[in-house]
Design goal:
124 residues; mainly alpha; 0% strand; 7 helices
Length: 124
């Protein structure tokens, strides 16, 4: 039995329109209905599953952060957070390390802050 790859589309027109719509919904000052939002997201997920990965898709996702986040979430099992910038994560890790080191340097050292025992204590 031969397994054939499904034909992936290279025309991103519909994907682009849905990505634009999702961006508008995300930035809307007016409340958006849950059913409308869910419908756009589901249609975009379907489209993203049908498009061929490559430079054109990458450019579309670069210019549409909500669609990029959706793409990452849908493909997380295969690629993790493949589109997330590492700079912010690395910066947060560095700041956490510095905070931990600073806290450790300010914490009382048990060996220097404990009162010394009197060698004659308890002896008569």
């Amino acid at each position: 039995m031969n397994a054939t790859k499904p034909h992936l589309q290279t025309d991103l027109t519909v994907t682009h329109v849905l990505a634009e719509l999702l961006e508008r919904l995300e930035r809307s000052a007016e409340p958006v209905g849950a059913a409308q939002y869910l419908s756009v997201v589901q249609h975009l997920v379907d489209e993203l599953g049908e498009v061929e990965p490559g430079l054109a898709l990458g450019a579309l996702l670069d210019s549409h952060p909500a669609a990029a986040e959706l793409y990452e979430n849908v493909n997380y099992q295969h690629a993790g957070l493949c589109r997330s910038a590492l700079d912010a994560s690395l910066d947060a890790e560095r700041q956490a390390k510095q905070a931990i080191l600073l806290a450790m340097s300010r914490a009382p050292n048990p060996s220097t802050n404990q009162p010394k025992e009197d060698p004659n204590h308890g002896k008569s």
